[in-house]
């Protein structure tokens, strides 16, 4: 299902306005909400934005301009798929904030999950809805090989990189070796590392929230007053009553981990999507993980989480806590695309059935919020201010 009309309209507004405020400015005669010291501290913790760029030590071509250019070319190249008709951009369309607007993506076949938008992906520690990869480059391998997505093989990847004169020259320039001389699996990994180098450049811009947050930090009340009053009412709900910031915290609005939020995890009748539990198993079995031979960092400085992660029973039905940046541009929502609008998401948390949740009751963060209609509307208004146009290296 394509994104709901309201969300599509919002996306068009945000892109056309270059990230202008979503919603009307605060009325002159309506007083600004007062924030407590605790609320102020919680709000300031969601910045500053954007973060600095740090190279991925496991990928020797991270930040390399030639690798970025090669990765961008490969990202849009349909020849990387088994049937020559699909590319990475099929499910990660720049015009849709690098998502696809579908409940579940369609490659060679319909897959089990919603396409994760790619903006700011380099900030993750785990990748994919289940965390089955521990680096951006290893995550980029999976859709190439997946029978339902691009359906290719390492040999297919090598043949493409070796046979096309332009790709062969670019590959040799980036990796100082000829694709024709490398083993197929090595070529596949190198292609994925170039793709990762490009994806690292996909970033979201500053948002109305960022402007408000920075104005709050410097005590600029005039600039703060330009932030929509409904969003100002929604902010205390987000950091307070709603407990949203317990999982969606920091400048990227995510803790980078996984949780069960009461969304059904059956991929289809009679077949379960194991979520994080299955993701950990795939991670530990993968030859492309940070503990494997393709990590370019001899010290394995980013591999400690992989070394120590263990599947737990509670991981069944847990899925990624996504970043909320650009959330208004990437409907539908949840791992299976089952919620079409931001209002539907907020209502889900307001009315969540705790009987559907796994985990220990004492440690469980997700509980029904019982929000009023106005609180729901205000929280949605705040979430709408977290979006901005997405850019990537040309």
List keywords for this structure.
3% strand; 37% helix; disordered N terminus; Cytochrome Bc1 Complex, Chain D, domain 2; mainly alpha; two-stranded antiparallel ribbon; 394 residues; two-stranded antiparallel sheet
Short description:
The chain has a two-stranded antiparallel ribbon. Strands 2-5 form a two-stranded antiparallel ribbon. Helix 5 crosses helix 8, helix 11 crosses helix 15 and helix 14 packs across helix 15.
Q: Return the CATH class of the largest domain.
A: Mainly Alpha
By helix and strand content, what is the structural category? mainly alpha
Largest sheet: 2 strands, antiparallel
Radius of gyration over C-alpha positions, nearest whole angstrom: 21 Å
Number of folding domains?
A: 2
CATH superfamily placement of the largest domain: Cytochrome c-like domain
* Count of alpha/pi helices: 15
Arithmetic mean of pLDDT: 90
β-strand amount: under 5%
Shape: globular
Question: Could you spell the SSE succession in H and E letters?
Answer: HHHHHHHHEHHHEEEHHEHHE
Distance between the termini: 30 Å
- Tell me the CATH architecture of the largest domain: Orthogonal Bundle
CATH topology of the largest domain: Cytochrome Bc1 Complex, Chain D, domain 2
Q: Let me know the number of strands.
A: 6
Q: Which runs of at least 5 residues are low in confidence (pLDDT < 50)?
A: 1-28
Strand order of the largest sheet: 1-6
Helix proportion range: 25-40%
């Amino acid at each position: 299902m394509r994104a709901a009309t309201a969300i599509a309209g919002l996306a068009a507004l945000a892109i056309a306005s270059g990230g202008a405020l979503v919603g009307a400015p605060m009325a002159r005669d309506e007083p600004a909400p007062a924030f407590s010291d605790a609320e102020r501290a919680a709000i300031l913790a969601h910045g500053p934005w954007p973060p600095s760029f740090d190279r991925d030590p496991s990928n020797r071509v991270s930040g390399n301009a030639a690798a970025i250019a090669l990765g961008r070319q490969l990202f849009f190249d349909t020849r990387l798929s088994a049937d020559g008709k699909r590319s990475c951009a099929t499910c990660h369309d720049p015009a849709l904030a690098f998502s696809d607007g579908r409940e579940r993506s369609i490659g060679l076949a319909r897959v089990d999950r919603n396409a994760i938008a790619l903006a700011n992906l380099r900030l993750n520690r785990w990748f994919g809805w289940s965390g089955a990869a521990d680096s951006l480059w290893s995550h980029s391998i999976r859709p190439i090989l997946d029978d339902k997505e691009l359906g290719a093989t390492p040999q297919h990847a090598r043949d493409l990189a070796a046979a096309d004169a332009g790709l062969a020259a670019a590959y040799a320039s980036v990796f100082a070796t000829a694709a024709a001389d490398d083993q197929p699996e090595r070529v596949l990994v190198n292609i994925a590392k170039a793709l990762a180098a490009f994806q690292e450049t996909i970033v979201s811009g500053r948002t109305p929230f960022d402007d408000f947050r920075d104005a709050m930090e410097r005590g600029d009340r005039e600039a703060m007053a330009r932030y929509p009053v409904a969003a100002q009412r929604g902010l205390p709900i987000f950091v307070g009553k709603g407990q949203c910031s317990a999982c969606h915290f920091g400048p990227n609005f995510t803790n980078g981990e996984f949780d069960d939020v009461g969304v059904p995890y059956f991929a289809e009748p009679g077949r379960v999507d194991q979520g994080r539990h299955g993701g950990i198993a795939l991670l530990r079995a993968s030859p492309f993980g940070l503990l494997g031979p393709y990590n370019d960092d001899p010290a394995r400085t980013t591999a400690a989480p992989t070394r120590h992660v263990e599947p737990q029973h509670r991981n069944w039905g847990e899925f990624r806590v996504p970043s909320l940046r650009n959330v208004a541009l990437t409907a539908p929502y949840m791992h299976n695309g089952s919620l079409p609008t931001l209002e539907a998401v907020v209502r889900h948390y307001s009315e969540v059935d705790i009987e559907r949740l796994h985990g220990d009751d004492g440690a469980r963060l997700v509980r029904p919020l019982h929000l009023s209609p106005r609180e729901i509307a205000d929280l949605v208004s705040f979430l709408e201010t977290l979006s901005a146009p997405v850019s990537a290296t040309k």
